[in-house]
User: Fold this.
Amino acid sequence: MFPFTRVSEKTAQKLAAVFFFTTLGLGLALTGFWRYVHQLTLTLPVIDAPQPVGANAPPIQRVSPLLVDYRLDTPGRGELFPAMSTAAASDYWPVAILTVTNTGTSPAVQVITAEIPDFSRVLRQTVVLGARQTAAIRISPELLPSAYNLQEIARATLHVAVLDDAGTTMFAQSRPVLIHSGNDLYWGRKFANAQVVARWVTPHDPAVLNLVSTAHRFVPNGRMPGYNVNERNAKRLPEQVRRQAEAVFEALKRSGFSYVSSIYTFGDFVRDSQRIRLPRETLQLDSANCMDISVAFASAIENLDMDPVLVIIPGHAFTGVRLGPQSSDTLYLDLTILPQGTFQQAVTRAQQWLKKTKPEEVLTIDVASARRMGIYPLPSAPQQQPAPTTPVAAEARN
Assistant:
């Protein structure tokens, strides 16, 4: 047991009094401190009202137009490929480059506007240049559907203007440009832009939906589940993919088109570019080249939520489908054997191409990887009548 000590009544009263006055003192101190902080946070400094500027006040200093130099260049010889505009291509150019040099000792505010009438929205951006600073500004106005709907190369004009922060025009120039058909792909040097061909793979186009609908007739029970399979049947996935690929093949065969050579393009980049039909055009017409039919097949495969590939070798192209999600095993098909050939003949011919082509000459475009790179399908809306323009053929070459 703990010892117990009795405290006298007088001593207890003294302790109670000390406790009371101590508590009261602390309470008053805290109250005073709170009022001080509260008053401090609510009290704002008094700011004098701004004085009106007198008539003799000095003007706001702005950089003289004579102290700012401008140079407008149109790389790519002024030729534009609409399909490349939002594809983050590694070997492509902006519509124009405006080089601005501020030779003054004060910062310069530059408001840049650019437009290709009938073919682009108005681009507007503000740039602040420090004293004696030079900036190269890439100019690429967003293209309108009329640019993508072009079927031939067309002449247009780029207008660029620069204003200062007061709205005074500092610079204004125009440049002629040539806009390619929306179906023209610029491959780039050594096929540096090959991944961009994934833009022609358009899985949601109504013509592709009809193709997939037809393909359902050529599989048991009309089931085309893509890569979906339960765990018990996981080993059967490659055969499931093969059946669906064969169904799409048969649907393409029923369309009755025939093989033709590549469609040529105009302009200064005929050796580095190619005309490719969108699947909606291939499926509506009675002819297609190796790339046309390959992107049509790949569009149907992607619509089924499987991973298509496109293979480019010297002078030819064919297609394929991965046998599982991110699988290294791929079923390749050369569809140029259509309309008479069989599915097995398409597989055999693709394998023959792979065997006789040097590995370093085989370029594979994985569509799923291209999507992760931000390369999305071209617009698939019905074609619209383009704005009146002057078509340009071989005379467009410099």
